[in-house]
Structures are given as C-alpha cells and as structure tokens.
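can u do me a favor
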C-alpha cells in the first residue's frame, strides 16, 4: 500500500447536533391539547308538528302508566296488610276456640283443689299440681283469668245472673263471681258469670 493510499482514509462525518442535545427546547410540530374539551355550540333540532304531537302523546302515555304503577303498588300493599290481618285473626279465632274447650277442665280442677280435707293426701297434691300446670300453660298462651269481684259491671266482659241490694257496694258493682272469665289479648274467651249490686 502506498503512502498516498494510507493518507487518503475516508473521513468520518461529524455528528449532527440536534437541538435536544444542545439543550434547546424542541419545537412543537403541532399544538398539544390543553386538557379542556373544546366547547361546541349546542345542536339545535327543529321538530315538525307531527313529531311534537307524537312526543306529547308519548308523555301522556308515560304519565298514565306511571299512575297505574303507583295505584297497583298501593293496592298490593293494602292487599298484603289485609291478608296478614286476616291470617292473624284466623289464628287468634282458632286459638280462642281451642282454649275455650279446656275451660271446663279448668273449672273442675279448681273446684277439686278447693275441697277441704286431705291436705297431706297424695291425691289432692296431684290435683293441685295438674291445676297449676294448666294455669301455667294458659298463661304461656297469653290467657288472663278475670276475677271481677268488687269491680264495676261491664256487660262486654260480665254476664249478670243475679242482682242484690247491698249498701256497702256501689251501684253496678260486681258483688260475687260464680264463674271466672278469660281474656286473650283483650278479646273475651268467656264472660264472667257474676252477681251485681243494685
């Protein structure tokens, strides 16, 4: 290789300096969006007479359907409440009818317990235990026994079979109870059979 060839080496092209390398800020090609949506003018529509009439008809139909829905919801709520009341009344009636059938047993056990003599008798103690057990069952069912002696006479709860003149008692006061009454939640299962002072 000759000296001439050695000296004629291809020269490397100098690197082109970009504006970023020199520290200068790049020129934006296009404006960046500012983050706020551009406000566009609201579109306006013109409706024909037929379209307006159709819209009014649809609005009336919607209003009618809304009223029907509200009425139906109210009717269903009333139906639900009414059926709940009816079920409760049926249950209470069945309960009262069942309890009423046991009241004669209650009366007979009460009479047997009140008999004098035989305090240490196993038979009498057994009768007392059965009577108290029946009392506890009735109390557990919500039954209250009414003994209205000395209270004002109430024709809704009392059945007057006798009248007596008694200066010690006021007018229309229960003087004596022949048969106790029974109540269930304010409802009368059996009226009290009483004697009333005039």
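np, heres the sequence
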């Amino acid at each position: 290789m000759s000296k001439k060839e050695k000296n004629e080496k291809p020269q490397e092209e100098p690197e082109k300096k970009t504006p970023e390398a020199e520290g200068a800020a790049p020129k934006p090609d296009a404006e960046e969006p500012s983050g706020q949506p551009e406000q566009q003018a609201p579109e306006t529509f013109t409706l024909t007479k037929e379209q307006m009439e159709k819209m009014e008809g649809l609005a009336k139909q919607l209003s009618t359907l809304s009223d029907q829905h509200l009425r139906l919801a109210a009717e269903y709520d009333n139906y639900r409440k009414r059926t709940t009341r009816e079920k409760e009344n049926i249950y209470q009636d069945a309960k009262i009818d069942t309890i009423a059938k046991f009241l004669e047993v209650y009366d007979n056990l009460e009479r047997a317990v009140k008999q004098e003599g035989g305090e240490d008798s196993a038979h009498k103690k057994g009768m007392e235990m059965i009577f108290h057990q029946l009392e506890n069952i009735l109390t557990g069912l919500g039954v209250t026994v009414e003994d209205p002696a000395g209270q004002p006479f109430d024709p809704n709860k009392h059945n007057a079979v006798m009248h007596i003149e008694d200066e010690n008692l006021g007018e229309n006061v229960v003087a004596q109870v022949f048969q106790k009454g029974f109540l269930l939640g304010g409802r009368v299962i059996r009226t009290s059979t009483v004697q009333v002072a005039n």
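Residues 15 and 21 are 11 Å apart (CA to CA). hope that helps!!
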